[in-house]
Design brief:
The complex is a heterodimer of chains A (116) and B (395).
Chain A (H helix, E strand, L loop, with lengths): L1 E5 L6 E8 L3 E2 L10 E7 L5 E5 L2 E20 L13 E14 L6 E2 L7
Parallel strand pairs in A: 1-7, 2-7, 3-8
Antiparallel strand pairs in A: 4-5, 5-6, 6-7
Chain B lengths: L1 H4 L2 H10 L11 E6 L8 E5 L4 H6 L4 E4 L7 E3 L4 E17 L4 H6 L6 E6 L1 E11 L5 H8 L10 H4 L7 H7 L4 H10 L3 E3 L3 E3 L3 H18 L6 E2 H8 L5 H11 E5 L5 E5 L1 H13 L5 E2 H11 L15 E4 L6 E4 L9 H11 L3 E2 H8 L9 H8 E6 L2 E6 L5
Parallel strand pairs in B: 1-6
Antiparallel strand pairs in B: 3-4, 4-5, 5-7, 8-9, 10-12, 11-12, 13-15, 14-15, 16-18, 17-18
Helix pairs in contact in B: 9-11, 9-12, 10-11, 12-13
Classes of the chains: A mainly beta (116), B alpha+beta (395).
Family (chain B): Belongs to the DCC1 family.
Protein name (chain B): Sister chromatid cohesion protein DCC1
Keywords (chain B): DNA replication
Chain lengths: 116, 395
């Protein structure tokens, strides 16, 4: 079968990729949805700084040699097997830039922000 | 809920705790949180090869093709790519509405907090590698039921699958342009305006024979065969579409100043087809006998040459007398290793000149026959000539 991968007519959005070492886990044992990751700043020189919980991560802006397309599955059916592209996809966005953060491998824990 | 609560004051407090100097930072901050669907796994990443990004931005589509038993490929309008999953040890988050420092400087926001929701995350993505379109299946589908002409009994009594362009697009792992080009290469034609068919070889030779006989009786030059007259003279024998199709297959169409359509007949292709007709009747032939019969069988004025038979027939120079037999490259396996296995089981040692027509089509973009031979064969010297044999024992 043909699985179509089209841009659906409108202009393609430009998204950003953030690459982190390690895994993202929720602090509470619930899902990640809605929880904060952290604050992303840039220095005046353009260096990205990500504050996640009690960690400060310094990164760099990388222009991707090979951009990514973000494919969003239509129809909502679950993926039958991990390796296979099944179903109908729409190209939702392009990613040409990534923020690459390197840090000592530690679990990065989302946190509840302090109230001022 | 949690996200909209985060205020500038809280951000500043965090900066203070982190001992970062706000004066060294750009004024705006992105507060990153996970969107409601972030964990759902509905998004995945596809790494784009050069050119594909521009195609998507121009509004063109990409299509993923493959049946359950086939490895999926991605097709643009004119290219085909293998898809492979690449895993990374890092976590990739994809975030809409997140700006780079340049974008922030170019357009200083009136607010200094940007709330960005992470749309999804992944530790793998799809990698693409340009590959040869998988076209052997196309020929196989059409060869299952070749067209034998309107007088044939076959079409009326049996039902075989018939394929429109759309059918082929959904079944063949290749881009549309590659499919249409290959249909032309194999001289397929549309019957009843819709279905792609290949002509059965004997029917094709019959049609060709009508044309070459007419050329002879009219004493036309091979370079100036008029379409109109062919249709008038032969239209009572065969359908006009078939007459025109055989002229298109075996000639080059042109229009003169008066608007008349002519064909420049392709001598090499005609000689080659007649050779196939002769060779298909036996396992092998005495080479010199074959060459004599072949020259006599082609239209008067045409000259046969062995190099017209590249990829169609193979000469055995080691036998006494020398022989020739039919070996069609399109009958051989499509996969590289299987192709070489097949060739080495037919003949143990090949010269580069002999093997090239049988592996030329395996070359990827910018790959040479030499590179293929280095990879799949082992070379040695035989009587002062470089020959290639299999890297592994062939049963």
């Amino acid at each position: 079968p043909c699985l179509s991968c089209s841009s659906g007519g409108g202009a393609l959005a430009q998204w950003m990729l953030v690459e982190l070492q390690g895994e993202v886990e929720p602090r509470q044992s619930g899902s990640l949805a809605g929880s904060l990751l952290g604050d992303l700043h840039y220095t005046c020189e353009g260096i990205p700084v990500l504050i996640v919980g009690h960690h400060i991560l310094y990164g760099k802006v990388v222009q991707l040699e090979k951009p990514f397309a973000v494919l969003v599955k239509q129809g909502g059916a679950p993926q039958p097997s991990p390796g296979e592209p099944q179903g109908h996809y729409t190209v939702t966005a392009l990613i040409k830039t990534k923020l690459l953060f390197k840090t000592r491998p530690k679990p990065i824990i989302t946190h509840v922000p302090k109230k001022v | 809920a949690a996200m909209s609560e985060r205020s500038r004051a809280e951000v500043d407090a965090t900066l203070q705790t982190a001992k970062l100097n706000p004066a060294e930072l750009l004024p705006a901050v992105h507060c990153l949180s996970f969107g409601p669907q972030a964990s759902a796994g509905e998004c995945c990443l596809l790494q784009l090869e050069p050119g594909l990004c521009a195609e998507l931005e121009a509004g063109r589509s990409l299509v993923i093709r493959g049946e359950k038993d086939e490895q999926a490929v991605l097709c643009s309008k004119d290219k085909t790519y293998d898809m492979k999953r690449a895993d990374t040890s890092n976590m990739l988050l994809f975030i809409p509405g997140c700006k780079t420092p340049e974008q922030m400087n170019a357009d200083p926001a009136s607010c200094n907090i940007i709330y960005s929701q992470i749309a999804g995350f992944s530790n793998n993505y799809w990698e693409l590698r340009r590959c040869r379109p998988k076209l052997k299946k196309l020929r196989n589908l059409l060869m299952a039921d070749p067209y034998e002409g309107p007088g044939s009994q076959k079409d009326q009594t049996l039902t075989f699958s018939k394929y429109t362009t759309e059918d082929l697009l959904s079944l063949i792992q290749a881009s549309e342009e590659e499919i249409l080009h290959h249909l032309q290469v194999i001289d397929a034609c549309k019957i009843e305006g819709r279905y792609w068919r290949i002509l059965e070889f004997n029917y094709e030779m019959k049609l060709l024979d009508h044309v070459t006989q007419l050329i002879d009786s009219e004493s036309w030059s091979f370079n100036k065969v008029p379409l109109r007259t062919c249709l008038e003279e032969l239209g009572s024998l065969e359908p006009k579409e078939m007459i025109e199709h055989i002229l298109l297959s075996y000639g080059r169409k042109y229009v003169d100043d008066a608007g008349e359509v002519y064909f420049e007949m392709r001598e090499d292709k005609i000689c080659r087809a007649i050779a196939q007709m002769l060779l298909q009747n036996a396992v092998k032939f005495n080479l010199s006998e074959f060459q004599e019969v072949w020259q006599q069988s082609v239209p008067e004025g045409m000259t046969t040459r062995l190099d017209q038979l590249k990829g169609l027939a193979l000469v055995d120079k080691s036998s006494r007398p020398e022989t020739i037999f039919l070996l069609k490259v399109e009958d051989l396996p499509e996969d590289n290793q299987e192709r070489f296995n097949s060739l080495f089981s037919i003949r143990q040692k090949w010269t580069e000149v002999d093997i090239t027509p049988y592996i030329q089509d395996l070359c990827a973009e910018k790959q040479t026959v030499g590179a293929l031979l280095t990879k799949y064969a082992r070379s040695s010297m035989l009587n002062g000539v470089k020959v290639y044999n299999s890297r592994r024992p062939i049963s």
